[in-house]
Amino acid sequence: MNLACGESFGFLGFDFRRIRSIRNKVWRPQYTPKLKKRTALLRKLKDVFRRYKSQSVGCVVALINPMLRGWVNYFAIGHSSECFSFVRDWVEKKIRRHMQRSRKQQGFGWETWSKRRLYGELKLFNGYKVRYKTQMKASPA
């Protein structure tokens, strides 16, 4: 594997590649969650939403929160924020749809269900934060 030639490789669920930074114009490593891992998470969540269609939204949130928390904590390093945004938006959309269907209404309820209500009242997981932004520093020899 030769990162200098623009190749990338996967390791422990991350996709490693070398990119040129915009500000400093220096080469640096970038690692993001693999698309395959994100797809696997969304498939598991989708299965929960399907299986518990008739349950209350509180029950569904209680089931998906540990899954989201574990996945985000594992991938909370590197350059995962774009992936986290995608997952967060997808989960919000599914929760809104679940609540609309429980009221026998169509649509997503964008006006009806605010983010404050989703994260405040329903206690939906909201810890999508990259905690460990690593810096490559030269170590003394």
Spans of at least 5 consecutive residues with low confidence: none
**Biggest sheet, in brief?**
3 strands, antiparallel
Structure annotation, total helices? 4
- Pattern of helices and strands: EEEHHHH
Lateral arrangement of strands in the main beta sheet: 1-2-3
Rounded radius of gyration (Å) = 19 Å
Mean pLDDT across all residues, rounded? 81
Overall geometry comes to elongated
Give the amount of beta strand, in percent: 5-15%
Helix content: 40-55%
In terms of structural class, how would the helical and strand content be classed? alpha+beta
User: How many extended strands?
Assistant: 3
Distance between the termini: 26 Å
Protein described:
The structure is a single chain. By secondary structure, the chain is an alpha+beta fold. The protein has a domain of 88 residues. It contains 4 helices and 3 strands. It has a 3-stranded antiparallel sheet. α1 runs antiparallel to α2 and α1 packs parallel to α3. The longest helix is centred in the middle third of the chain and has 22 residues. The chain is elongated and about 55 Å long. The model has no long low-confidence stretch (mean pLDDT 81).
